[in-house]
């Protein structure tokens, strides 16, 4: 688990509180099924890298 989420006490399938949304989104890289990745930053930016065949 990323360090940014260590203090959150939630389980699988539980709703993320609005107060924790920034920490949840910026904790790591999202990896999609086809291999594309997306990163959210705390300043509101996002980087999406699609898989290039």
TrEMBL record:
It comes from the Bacteria. This is Uncharacterized protein.
């Amino acid at each position: 688990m990323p360090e940014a989420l260590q203090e959150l006490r939630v389980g699988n399938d539980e709703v993320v509180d609005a107060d924790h949304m920034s920490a949840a989104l910026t904790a790591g890289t999202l990896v999609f099924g086809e291999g594309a990745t997306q990163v959210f930053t705390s300043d509101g930016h996002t980087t999406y890298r699609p898989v290039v065949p």
